[in-house]
Amino acid sequence: MVTQIISTMETQVSNGPSGTSLPNGPVISTNGSTDDSKTNLIVNYLPQNMTQEEFKSLFGSIGEIESCKLVRDKITGQSLGYGFVNYVDPNDADKAINTLNGLKLQTKTIKVSYARPSSASIRDANLYVSGLPKTMSQKDMEQLFSQYGRIITSRILVDQVTAGISRGVGFIRFDKRNEAEEAIKGLNGQKPLGAAEPITVKFANNPSQKTGQALLTQLYQTAARRYTGPLHHQTQRFRLDNLLNASYGVKSSPTLFPRFSPITIDSMTSLAGVNLTGPTGAGWCIFVYNLSPEADESVLWQLFGPFGAVTNVKVIRDFTTNKCKGFGFVTMTNYDEAAMAIASLNGYRLGDRVLQVSFKTSKQHKA
DNA sequence: TTTAATT
Predict the structure, then answer these.
(1) Per-residue pLDDT at A217
(2) CA distances from A145 to A18, A31, A38, A154 (A)
(3) Do A125 and A228 share a domain, yes or no?
(4) How confident is the model at residue A283 (pLDDT cuts 50, 70, 90)?
(5) CA distances for A320 relative to A5, A161, A184, A323, angstroms
């Protein structure tokens, strides 16, 4: 037998408001520089389509930001659904937690909490648990695991249709990796009290282990939903002028930045209409035709990212309406990857449109 | 039988 579920036990999970509280620590050092532990926040469960600009705007409404970053996939440029905000004033960080934690944005409820100091020991501390009794609640699961360490988040996956019914599968993130290791040793293959079957406990996969094909499928599904579902959202606007090309900066070589470099992301978004000219210089320029008027840069990242290194994307827009004129360009570093992307995406149906994709022909300006 | 939590 393994573990008792003691019903009176209180969990100390930092899932809810205000996240992790930091015991007692200096706020301001003698030289006047701020201690990140009181100013640096992590924001989780952001809507997939939130941009860096929107993220900055939302948190900038609280107070002056020292730096902020929406974390994105290095290859596809897609948001990973979380980000960091470092305020100048610790009071603003506190205020951001109090006013923005729990805020509902589209389908998500965002979580705002203090970021733990970054260190190797907190990485890979996420566990995947399966074979859970269907009756086990999230709280039950936390109680089962909490004997091995401090739980940062937990989740039980539920059936989509019969909403609320457990799939017997969940996740537990510990504060430290070694706590997660101990939980595996202690609980993998064990039967929770009263359960008929043993549970499986292992390290979780990285959530973006998706193949190019899977990404295309996902993209297609989200695009298709746009045309079939009763989607009347009036929700997405953080009322910024997010209109013009947000040509996301992509640094192709993993430069070793000093930690917490004051360089903000925005300072890297300087690529404009550079290298849009032919298969020379920085890479292979690809012409994408039949984009919808609503298309934006992110759709190009999503389409081409899975095939390899993408250094630039651009949607061509009408100057006055700011709608896409039906085409755009993508620059890829490697010929093979570009050729594969073209072979795969030419004729690809995106929503109700069939894309035409080819290397850009060198009919200089004006076609 | 795998969700978007460490810059």
Answers:
(1) 55
(2) 22, 42, 28, 10
(3) no
(4) confident
(5) 63, 44, 59, 8
Task: Measure Cα distances from A242 to A95, A238, A291, A322 in Å.
Answer: 25, 9, 19, 11
Please check whether strand B approaches the CB of A45 to within 7 Å: yes
A248-253: list long-range contacts, CB under 8 Å, 24+ apart: A248/A52, A248/A72, A248/A77, A248/A297, A248/A301, A248/A313, A250/A77, A250/A310, A250/A311, A250/A312, A252/A309, A252/A311, A252/A333
How many angstroms is C1' of B4 away from CA of A253? 24
Whether A305 is in a domain gets the answer yes
A285 pLDDT more than 90: yes
State whether A88 and A218 are in the same domain: no
Angle at Cα A333 formed by Cα A224 and Cα A269, nearest 5°? 75
Q: Are residues A242 and A338 in the same domain?
A: yes
pLDDT reading at A45 higher than 60:
yes
The token duo for A333 is 């570093």
CA–C1' A255–B5 (A): 23
Token match 């936390």: residue?
A142
Q: Indicate whether A9 belongs to any domain.
A: no
With a cut of 90, say whether residue A10 has pLDDT above it: no
Total domain count, chain A: 3
Is position A24 within any domain? no
Q: Which residue has the higher pLDDT, A352 or A289?
A: A289
Establish whether the CB of A40 is closer than 7 Å to any nucleic acid atom in strand B: yes
CA of A361 to C1' of B6 (A): 43
Q: Is the CB of A113 under 7 A from strand B?
A: yes
- CA closest to C1' of B5 belongs to A44
pLDDT in tens, A157-177: 998 777 679 999 999 999 999
**A365 occurs within a structural domain:** no
Q: Where in the sequence is the domain holding A169, given as residue range(s)?
A: 121-203
> pLDDT tens, A110-138?
999 999 999 999 999 999 999 999 999 99
